[in-house]
Specification:
The complex is a heterodimer. By secondary structure, chain A is an all-beta fold. In chain A, about 0% of the residues lie in helices and about 55% in strands. Classes of the chains: A mainly beta, B mainly beta.
């Protein structure tokens, strides 16, 4: 069974630009969660989508948004990039019923210059 | 607010020297406690899920246990390939994972 895939794996952007990251979950999984990982803050929850609906959202500004498509693939968008947005962005998938294990992708490394 | 605290921050072990990592948590409604392993530049790799106090899970040299307030990850006779950051996370009632800061384990041959 193929794992969670994320594209692109690496990105370099400049301040003020916007970026879109993509995540394809494990086949059959309907829940996709996004996390930001930085050396200072660790892994922080961004949002979770299930059946194209956002069920939960972390404490991030509105510049961070996401969506989920009918095939469970998900995208997250960051507008007006800031230097502090440089991080490893991780996507995780699960069945979606709660209490379930989340399986992570390899991440997208974003560097904002 | 949910809190997950891992200790120690870093652990340096000699090959074969067993040790334990701690994860203490304060959450409003625990739906599961998870252990992950993360290698530099990679996504977290799932190790164990624990749901209730008294539960134990084992995999090779790793054993995870759970009480009402904390979990332990025991590493028995570690090898250099066990070097990684070990992350603890709790699954709360609102479908999100709250992570601890992790314990970075270095095993010297």
């Amino acid at each position: 069974k193929a794992g969670v895939t994320q594209t692109p794996r690496y990105l370099i952007k400049t301040r003020g630009q916007q970026v879109t990251l993509s995540c394809s979950p494990i086949s059959g999984h309907r829940s996709v969660s996004w996390y930001q990982q930085t050396p200072g803050q660790g892994l922080q929850f961004l949002f979770e989508y299930f059946s194209e609906t956002q069920r939960n959202k972390g404490n991030f500004p509105g510049r961070f948004s996401g969506r989920q498509f009918s095939n469970s693939r998900s995208e997250m968008n960051v507008s007006t990039l800031e230097l502090g947005d440089s991080a490893l962005y991780l996507c995780a998938s699960s069945g979606g019923a709660g209490r379930e294990t989340q399986y992570f992708g390899p991440g997208t490394r974003l560097l904002v210059l | 607010e949910d809190q997950v605290t891992q200790s120690p921050e870093a652990l340096r072990l000699q090959e074969g020297e067993s040790s334990s990592l701690n994860c203490s948590y304060t959450v409003s409604g625990l739906r599961g406690l998870f252990w992950y392993r993360q290698d530099p530049g990679k996504g977290p790799e799932f190790l164990f899920t624990l749901y209730s106090a008294g539960e134990e899970k084992e995999k090779e040299r790793l054993k995870a246990t759970l009480t009402k307030k904390e979990s332990f990850l025991h590493i028995t006779a570690p090898k250099p390939e066990d070097s990684a950051t070990y992350l603890c996370a709790v699954h709360t009632n609102d479908y999100k994972l709250s992570f601890g800061a992790g314990t970075t384990v270095t095993v010297r041959a």
